[in-house]
Every structure is written in C-alpha cells, then in structure tokens.
UniProtKB/TrEMBL annotation:
Binding residue positions for substrate: 163, 192, 249
Family annotation (HAMAP family): MetA_acyltransf
Site for Important for substrate specificity, residues: 192
Keywords for the protein's UniProt record, in alphabetical order: Acyltransferase, Amino-acid biosynthesis, Cytoplasm, Methionine biosynthesis, Transferase
Catalytic machinery residues: 142, 235, 237
Enzyme Commission number: 2.3.1.31
NCBIfam families reported in the protein's UniProt record: metA
Subcellular location: Cytoplasm
Protein name per UniProt: Homoserine O-acetyltransferase
C-alpha cells in the first residue's frame, strides 16, 4: 500500500523511479480507507534528502500512510528554501489540535551542544510532551533519540572520545520484541555521531528496555514497555552514499575525520561503499508501522487523549 504525499514534493520523482508505492493526495481522498496519520519532525539540514530517505522506508508496507512534515518555527533553516518549507511543511502550532497515529523525530548535527542551548529546544520539548497524549507511537532517530531519552526519562547523553562513524554489527537482546520481528540475530546499521547513551543508564530507568546493541557502537535500539516510544541511535534510513558524502565534506574542510569503519571494502575510501543495512532498515520501519502503530492505534484518533498508557496485550517487548 502507498504512502500519501503532495503531488509536487521533490522526493516523488526519485521514489517513483525506484518503484516505491506512492499515492498523491487527490487520489487518496477518493478511497474509503483511513490512512495512518504520521507526522515527521525533520530536524536535518538536508531536509529534501531526509524526506526521500524516510518516505522510501515508510512507503514499503501494505499500509496507506499520510505524511505531515513539521518544521521548527523557532529555527530558520539555512539549507532549505523558505519556498519548500512553506509548500510542504507545517508548524507545531498548526497541528497542535490534531492527533496522529505515529510521529518520527529525526536526528540533527548538533549533538555536541547541551540540549538547553539548542535554539529550538523549548519548541521541541512542547512537541515531545504533546506526543504523549496526541500520538500513539513515536520513533526517535539518532540525536532525536538522545533528546527523547533525556526529556522523557532523564537519561543524559555522553560525549564520545572519537566520532562513532561507520556501519556496525548489532545483536538482538530481546528476540521476541515485535519491532524486531524477522531480524537476524546480528544485523548491521550505520552510525554518525559524536555522542552516545550508556546502556547502564537505560537499564536504571523505569519503563524502558534496550532491545539491540553493538560491542563497538553501544546501544542501538531501546523502547518503552508499551511500545509507544522507540529510540534508534543510528541512521538506518541512510542511503548508500550518505556516509561517503559526510566523509568527503569533512575532508574538504580540512578536518581530521576518521574513515567510516566497515563501510568501504577494506576500509579503503577510494572504493565504492557496500550497502549491507538496507533490508533491516525497511524491516524496522515496517515493524514499527505495523506492530507499534497500525495494530494498536484506535480507529478514532480522538480516543488517544483518554487511552491508558500501559503495555497492550498484543505488545511484546
């Protein structure tokens, strides 16, 4: 089933060329089916690229998904035109009175800043707090995951001695977690960050579990006991050349940046990178949409505000 997007969204051309199942809004409105309402808080500077990456994953399920992109009103984007934002993005104030089946909060290249020094931190906190009663399940990515863990569970991020940069193997700790259905016992995923979250800090918090981790990269996936908060510390949405572009950008700036590990054949940056994580990225998003959202969200989203926040009978962590 398709993901529903505006007809003129730039990502449409790329995704249609890849045979991703899309549906324009005018066609979707003629169907007597309630699509899943998914909001995406896109904090990445390369918003168009991130739109394409996320829609590619969200559009690979048997579910119709209606996307609402959100931008921070308290932050002026330097890398995305105001015309694009005006055409395809809403602000939090514009959707505050709505309810959504799911919410995605992306990463942002600001992890070395204390949370309170991020110029849109107060607005993001409003969104995260609002999600507790207005969104059934929220997927937090990379810096977004660190922000969510800090806001909801008081878990501090830590600065790493070296950038966590590359593709790393992860092992499953909770094999019966529905969000990991169909995963191999060991699976790869990309990381690109200067900060991290200690597993022991998550273990010490109430109501949250570590589901997958890496000996090299640490915690990769954690979830609340009721499945309404999913935290992913890496970037499964990355394309084959995203780490390459980041590496080349930093090298061109004269930075002492490490070669992304386990990404180029033989860790040789003159070689074309290998894509080893794509199937698990599709599976993660499909599982989130199916098990955390579609199977459990009320048909009447108005019931979200009165629903009890406890583990459902059909949720397994």
């Amino acid at each position: 089933m398709p993901v529903t997007i505006p007809r003129d969204l730039p990502a449409r051309v790329t995704l249609e060329a890849e045979n991703v199942f899309l549906m324009t809004e005018d066609r979707a409105f003629t169907q007597d089916i309630r699509p899943l309402k998914i909001a995406v808080v896109n904090l990445m500077p390369t918003k168009v690229a991130t739109e394409t990456q996320l829609l590619r994953l969200l559009g690979n399920t048997p579910l119709q998904v209606q996307i609402t992109f959100l931008a921070m009103a308290s932050h002026e984007s330097r890398n995305t035109s105001s015309e694009h934002l005006d055409a395809f993005y809403a602000t939090f104030e514009q959707v505050r009175d709505e309810r959504f089946d799911g919410l995605v909060i992306t990463g942002a290249p600001i992890e070395l800043l204390p949370f309170e020094q991020v110029n849109y931190w107060d607005e993001l906190c409003q969104i995260m707090d609002w999600s507790l009663d207005n969104v059934f399940s929220t997927l937090y990515i990379c810096w977004g995951a660190q922000a969510g863990l800090y806001r909801h569970h008081g878990i501090e991020k830590i600065v790493l001695p070296d950038k966590m940069f590359g593709v790393f193997d992860h092992r499953i700790l909770r094999p019966h977690a529905r969000v990991l259905s169909g995963f191999d016992e060991v699976f790869p995923a990309p990381h690109s960050r200067h900060t991290g979250t200690r597993a022991q800090d998550i273990h010490a918090a109430e109501g949250i579990e570590v589901l997958a981790e890496s000996d090299e990269a640490g915690v990769y996936l954690a979830a609340s006991e009721d499945g309404r908060q999913i935290f992913v510390t890496g970037h499964p949405e990355y394309e084959w050349d995203t780490l390459l572009a980041e590496y080349q950008r930093d090298v061109s700036r004269g930075l002492d940046v490490p070669v992304p590990r386990n990404y180029f054949p033989g860790d040789d940056p003159t070689q074309k990178p290998r894509v080893t994580w794509r199937s698990h990225a599709f599976l993660l998003y499909a599982n989130w949409l199916n098990h955390c959202v579609y199977q459990r969200t009320p048909y009447d989203l108005g019931a979200l505000s009165t629903s009890e926040h406890h583990p459902g009978d059909d949720w397994v962590i």
